[in-house]
Specification:
The complex is a heterodimer.
Chain A: H1 5-24, H2 47-71, E1 74-80, E2 91-92, E3 95-96, E4 103-111, E5 117-125, H3 136-145, E6 154-156, E7 161-163, E8 167-171, E9 177-183, E10 186-200, E11 206-209, E12 222-224, E13 229-231, E14 234-245, E15 250-252, E16 257-259, E17 266-269
Parallel strand pairs in A: 7-17
Antiparallel strand pairs in A: 1-4, 2-3, 4-5, 6-8, 8-12, 9-10, 10-11, 10-14, 13-17, 14-15, 14-16
Chain B: H1 2-23, H2 60-80, H3 84-88, H4 95-109, E1 113-115, E2 120-131, E3 134-145, E4 148-151, E5 159-161, E6 164-175, E7 178-186
Antiparallel strand pairs in B: 1-4, 2-3, 3-6, 4-5, 6-7
Classes of the chains: A alpha+beta, B alpha+beta.
Chain lengths: ~280, ~190
């Protein structure tokens, strides 16, 4: 197979031009980019990988964009890639780099009904922050910014006094709730629920339960004080959540948020037996 | 417009092929035969590689075994021009995989012979990437190939690839009994 030198030069110029366009392009929000083997360094490859790399170009938008959106209801997503454990991968600012020094970005299509992930590919982009989806840390920080209900402690008997050696009843009123916040241009929907409760009885005893306690006669969370005293019990509520990013699949938030409760004053009295005739 | 783009890319591939040949000249080609002769066929047909049980494990060792098995299947596909086994290891939406499968099918349809289906996989490294809430296993490795040729009758459409080592990336999706490749690209 031979080519005239002038024709060969023109073809090489075209190939170089195409590579520049692909490397500097940004995946649109509604269609995956044709990455053109983005991370490629341009070195020669074996026959099969050459055809794997070329497939994106050869099929163009039909295989990755137009057909996808026509045949499936869903959205294209993309995210930067956090540095992994492999020492052979280049990283900057905690994010993976392409061999050309740009930030490596994963693009994929997620179907609306089953959240199936399809047409995964990599691109390289100049800036990670403007295009990347929220990280797990971003999501947790967003949850921390959601105003949480006060961690209210209810004590029975009421009135700020109880008895020595008596099952003093404690409960709180935390209930699951939902909130939606905007984070880096993405809609994050939280389903927030109490995960556990840490009871500080004020006499040096603490206890963690998954039950919020309940009003008498359900004695779910009780404590017996052993001597007369004045204590300041409180309850902390530990919240957890699931989140949904832009209407996608639900996933657990990687972490919890603790809401510290206000202390109450409680007087512990001793009972004096009185004979009634 | 798309046809033009396809043509340009096709020409580009030819250019890359030509460049590879220029950079590392292959041994002097044998004289072009004036009469097309039938390509000798092996005396016994190779059998498709059998996936080892280890390659079904959803562990790093399992991913390693799977990738090594995958390339045995690539070699098998290159030798026999039967893409069926290769197709089964790839997710339907793996564009790169489809490119490799199409390459095999085109060679078969064109009556070609593929020379150089003896790859060697080394330096495997593993990681995890998240696509939203879903996890994929990333495997980056080197594939060493000898000089490879897709030899079509008449030589006009032959594709030649110099002996090389290709730094390659797979994303693997765990499925019920093993893995599927969802991304195949040079890394």
């Amino acid at each position: 197979m031979t080519f005239p030198r002038a024709a060969l030069s023109m073809i090489i110029s075209l190939v170089v031009s195409l590579n520049i366009v692909c490397l500097t392009s940004t995946a649109p929000s509604d269609a995956a980019d044709c990455d053109g083997g983005t991370p490629s360094t341009g070195t020669a490859t074996g026959a099969f990988t050459a055809h794997a790399d070329a497939a994106c170009h050869a099929t163009g938008g039909d295989a990755s964009g137009d057909t996808a959106t026509a045949a499936h209801d869903g959205v294209w997503r993309k995210a930067s890639v956090p540095c992994g454990k492999s020492p052979i991968l280049q990283c900057r600012d905690g994010l993976r780099l392409c061999p050309n020094g740009q930030f490596m970005t994963i693009v994929w299509f997620e179907t609306a009904d089953t959240h199936q992930i399809m047409w995964t590919r990599n691109t390289c982009e100049d800036e990670p922050a403007s295009s990347r989806g929220p990280t797990a840390g971003d999501i947790l920080n967003a949850l921390k910014r959601v105003p949480l209900p006060a961690s209210v402690l209810v004590i029975q008997p009421p009135g700020g006094a109880t008895l020595v050696n008596f099952d003093t009843n404690f409960f709180t009123t935390a209930k699951p709730f939902e909130r939606t916040v905007t984070l880096l241009g993405h809609q994050v929907h939280f389903k927030i629920r109490p995960r556990s409760f840490t009871w500080h009885y004020g006499d040096g005893e603490d206890e963690t339960t998954t039950k919020p306690g309940a009003a008498y006669p359900a004695l779910d969370v009780t404590h017996r004080y052993l001597k007369k005293d004045t204590v300041t019990p409180s309850v902390d509520t530990i919240w957890e959540a699931d989140y949904q990013l832009d209407g996608g699949a639900w996933a657990p938030v990687n972490g919890t948020v603790t809401k510290t409760g206000a202390a109450q004053q409680l007087t512990i009295k001793s009972a004096t037996p009185i004979l009634v005739g | 417009m798309r046809r033009i783009a396809t043509l340009i890319v096709g020409l580009g591939l030819l250019a890359v092929t030509a460049c590879s040949g220029d950079a590392e000249p292959s041994p002097p080609p044998s004289p072009t035969p004036t009469v097309t002769t039938a390509v000798p066929t092996p005396s016994s047909s190779p059998t498709a590689p059998v996936m080892p049980e280890a390659a079904r494990e959803h562990t790093e060792a399992g991913a390693k075994a799977f990738v090594e098995y995958f390339w045995e299947v690539v070699d098998y596909a290159g030798t026999t021009l039967d893409s069926s086994a290769l197709r089964k290891l790839a997710a339907d939406d793996c564009v790169g995989c489809q490119g490799a499968v199409d390459f095999v099918d085109q060679m078969r349809a064109g009556g070609a012979t593929f020379v150089g289906a003896t790859t060697h996989v080394t330096n495997l490294a593993f990681d995890t990437v998240m696509l939203g809430a879903q996890e994929r296993t990333e495997v980056v490795f080197d594939v060493t190939t000898p000089e490879q040729t897709a030899d079509y009758p008449g030589s006009v459409n032959d594709e030649r690839y110099a002996a090389t080592t290709t730094h390659t990336r797979f994303y693997l999706k765990a499925v019920a009994r093993g893995w599927r490749v969802v991304l195949w690209e040079s890394a």
